[in-house]
Each structure stands twice: as structure tokens, then as C-alpha cells.
């Protein structure tokens, strides 16, 4: 039991840290995906007939013009960001990084700032994929998720927390 507790809460060993970051990131990504796709389906229509989830779950969607879909893609990502980033912060502080490099308020502010920048870059990539290449919302979302993950890990490890 002590070994498991140490693996879960030890924040210094790089291999365990990266594995825990990946698992916490997976949970935050799941929260982000659920929030985004619910918003894109129910509140701000951004899904198309060729989106994977529309096909899998046989979802009835509202067809919208590309410019509206692009705007709704951005709105959906902003809403999902608020929920998933809070999830990520809590999990990272509990299991991955050592807090305390800055005051809690500054730490949370930096966490959201770094995440907002990385999500902004990712959403920009998604917009280009939708408008420039007509790709599905799902593919654009995946591209956003990959780019934000890479940026966030480096910034959180080296800028916000005690590595």
C-alpha cells in the first residue's frame, strides 16, 4: 500500500511524473471532449454529418453554414476549456507537480494563462482545418488536443510548478 501511495503522490521521479501527467491529462481530455461535443451538439451547433460521434451515436444535428460552424467551434472550445482546465489543475496539483512555486492565486492564473495560449493556438489550427481544408469538426478537435498537450506539459513543468 505504501508503494502505491508513493507512486501516486510522489512528485519528483520523471517517469512516474510523466505517466501520471498522461493519466490526468486523459481525464481532463475526456472532460473537455464531453463538454465540447455536448455544446457543439446541443447549444452551439458545430457538428457535421461526417463527424465520427454523429455517425456512431446516430445523432440528429442542425446543419449550419461553415462560418457559423467555425464560430460555434470556437465557442464550444471556450466553454469546454473552463471546465476541463479546472479538472486538469486539480489533478496536476494532487498527483503530478509540486505546487508552491508561486502563491495559489498566481499559480492558478499562470495555469489558466498558459492553457489559454495553448488552446488559442490549437483552436487556430482547428479553424484553419475547418475553413481552409473543410475537415470535420472531430478531426479539427483532435488536432487542437494534440497541440495543446505538448505546449501545456512543458509550460506546466518548467514555468508554473516545481518541475
Q: What brief labels describe this structure?
A:
single chain; 163 residues; mainly alpha
How would you characterize this protein structure?
The structure is a single chain. The protein has one domain (2-160). The protein has helices at 2-9, 14-43, 52-57, 66-96, 104-133, 137-160. Helices cover 79% and strands 0% of the residues. It is mainly alpha-helical and 163 residues long. It contains six helices and no strands. The two termini are 25 Å apart. It is elongated, with a radius of gyration of 17 Å.
The structural class is mainly alpha
Would you report the number of β strands?
Answer: 0
Q: Give the termini separation.
A: 25 Å
Taken together, the total number of domains comes to: 1
Question: Radius of gyration, Cα only, in angstroms?
Answer: 17 Å
Low confidence ranges: none
Total of helices: 6
Helix content: over 70%
- Helix-strand sequence: HHHHHH
Biggest beta sheet summary: none
* Strand coverage percent: under 5%
The global form is elongated
Mean model confidence by pLDDT: 87
Strand and helix map with partners:
Elements: H1 2-9, H2 14-43, H3 52-57, H4 66-96, H5 104-133, H6 137-160
Helix pairs in contact: 2-4, 4-5, 5-6
Amino acid at each position: 500500500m505504501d508503494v502505491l501511495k508513493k507512486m501516486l503522490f510522489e512528485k519528483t521521479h520523471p517517469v512516474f511524473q510523466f505517466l501520471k501527467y498522461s493519466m490526468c491529462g486523459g481525464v481532463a481530455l475526456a472532460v473537455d471532449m464531453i463538454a465540447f461535443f455536448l455544446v457543439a451538439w446541443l447549444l452551439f451547433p458545430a457538428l457535421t454529418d461526417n463527424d465520427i460521434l454523429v455517425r456512431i451515436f446516430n445523432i440528429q444535428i442542425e446543419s449550419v453554414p461553415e462560418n457559423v460552424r467555425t464560430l460555434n467551434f470556437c465557442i464550444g472550445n471556450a466553454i469546454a476549456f473552463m471546465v476541463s482546465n479546472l479538472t486538469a489543475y486539480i489533478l496536476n496539483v494532487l498527483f503530478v507537480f509540486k505546487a508552491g512555486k508561486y502563491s495559489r492565486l498566481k499559480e492558478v492564473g499562470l495555469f489558466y494563462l498558459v492553457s489559454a495560449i495553448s488552446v488559442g493556438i490549437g483552436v487556430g489550427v482547428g479553424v484553419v482545418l475547418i475553413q481552409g481544408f473543410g475537415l470535420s469538426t472531430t478531426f479539427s478537435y483532435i488536432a487542437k488536443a494534440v497541440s495543446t498537450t505538448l505546449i501545456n506539459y512543458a509550460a506546466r513543468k518548467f514555468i508554473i510548478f516545481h518541475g
